[in-house]
Design goal:
alpha+beta; six-stranded antiparallel barrel; four-stranded antiparallel beta sheet; 7 helices; 21 strands; elongated
Length: about 425
């Protein structure tokens, strides 16, 4: 007890003694007459000595209360802060790089006519899946059939003349050997036979061209894919190789590719994963589904404007869920960790010396453990450090936690996957 408190108690005791004395004076006048003059000088009427005693007692109680309250403030009691916790799990973790991907068709073809003529029909439906070789358009074939017949007739005529010239050549060669003709006549017969043979070859080429033109009168699909709208309707006259006015556009959608761009700093890891056949692209669909396919292409140069490099993955797309030109949420696998330590991302804190977690012991005492964060997928964090499977870590309430002091666990040691 301090010196001021002792002095206060002494004053209060004296006040009580004086009150008791005056009470004796009130009860025994004879004794009061025998009291010393100093004490008789302090004698007061009964009401006054009663009030003085009560006032002295009140002061005493007030001083004692203030002193007791001050002593309690000097000795605060530590209250364990409430926290929520989770357990450390061990899982195989694949880290990914999230980005926006663009669906790209493997092939897109603008179909044009290879011969000119009147378009007669288009035996397919717009938006239909057509196969390579399927009939798309039919051009009036009659002019091409007539040209073929003409070429065939010319071939037959020239073939007959070539046969006759070949027989003349053989005769003149034999006569020259017998001395019955001149060398000049023999040479003329040989030249005539060779010229007629060349004419036959020319006619054969004309027949082949006429046959091709007749075949081109039927326009067929060069690839398997999905057709767009018909751009030239039957009844119109079309010209050959009119690239500015195609008949229809066909896009190959099975399979299909997804193109993504990642920072050039990821290139070493991308190449390493590609060599290990672990590089894959994952696409999140709008209906909540997910598709995955191996990355089949890494660009051969970095885009100088964006500092990124292109990757492409090929998807079978048998259900036509991916459409060329569509933007999709994509992710590319970067690293794979086997038997990695996983905690909720809220369990990882950042301080002056780096990242750390609070591990709660069996007696509910929190200890600070430094860790290294390997990956963060937005929900869970993959870490390495002085923690082990089954440890209890704090995920909420870390701001009031004091290392080495107890905590009040509010939710029990829930599994990692149960923490929101």
């Amino acid at each position: 007890m301090s010196g001021s408190a002792e002095a206060t108690q002494r004053v209060a005791a004296e006040a009580v003694a004086w009150g008791a004395f005056e009470m004796n004076l009130r009860l025994d006048p004879d004794e009061a007459r025998d009291a010393p003059r100093e004490l008789q000088a302090h004698r007061r009427p009964p009401a006054r000595w009663l009030l003085s005693g009560l006032a002295a007692a009140g002061v005493t109680l007030s001083v004692l209360a203030i002193w007791r309250f001050g002593a309690q403030k000097q000795e605060p009691v530590f209250t364990p802060p409430p926290v929520n916790v989770a357990r450390v799990e061990v899982r195989n973790v694949t880290t990914v790089e999230h980005t926006i991907g663009t669906v790209v068709a493997v092939a897109t073809v603008q179909v044009t006519a290879q011969v000119s003529g009147q378009l007669m029909s288009a035996p397919f439906q717009e938006g239909q899946i057509v196969h390579a070789g399927s009939v798309l358009f039919e051009i009036d074939p009659r002019p091409f059939a007539a040209a073929l017949q003409q070429a065939q007739a010319a071939l037959a005529r020239d073939q007959a003349g070539a046969n006759n010239a070949e027989r003349d050549k053989a005769r003149y060669v034999a006569l020259l050997a017998q001395g019955a003709t001149s060398t000049q006549q023999r040479d003329l017969a040989v030249a005539t036979a060779e010229a007629d043979e060349a004419s036959v070859k020319l006619d054969q080429a004309a027949v082949t061209a006429a046959q091709l033109n007749l075949e081109y009168a039927t326009v067929r699909s060069p690839i398997t894919g999905k057709t767009g709208p018909i751009l030239v309707q039957p009844g119109n006259r079309i010209t050959a190789d009119n690239a500015t006015n195609p008949l229809v556009t066909i896009t190959q959608v099975q399979p299909i590719k997804v193109s993504v761009s990642l920072p050039q700093s990821d290139l070493p890891r991308l190449k390493e994963q590609l060599r290990a056949h672990r590089l894959a692209a994952i696409v999140d669909l709008h209906n909540g589904g997910r598709l995955a396919a191996p990355v089949s292409f890494i660009g051969n140069q970095v885009d100088a404007r964006t500092g990124t490099i292109e990757l492409r993955a090929t998807f079978s797309n048998t259900d036509d869920r991916l459409v060329p030109g569509e933007l999709v949420d994509a992710a590319v696998t970067m690293n794979a960790y086997q038997s990695a330590l996983v905690v909720p991302r809220d369990a990882v804190n950042f301080g002056p010396s780096g990242r750390y977690v609070y591990v709660v012991s069996k007696d509910n005492v929190a200890q600070l453990h430094k860790v290294t964060e390997l990956d963060d997928d937005g929900t869970s964090a993959t870490i390495a450090g002085d923690v082990k499977r089954g440890d209890t870590v704090i995920v909420q309430g870390q701001l009031r936690v004091v290392p080495g002091q107890p905590v009040d666990i509010g939710n029990g040691a829930a599994p990692t996957s149960a923490i929101n």
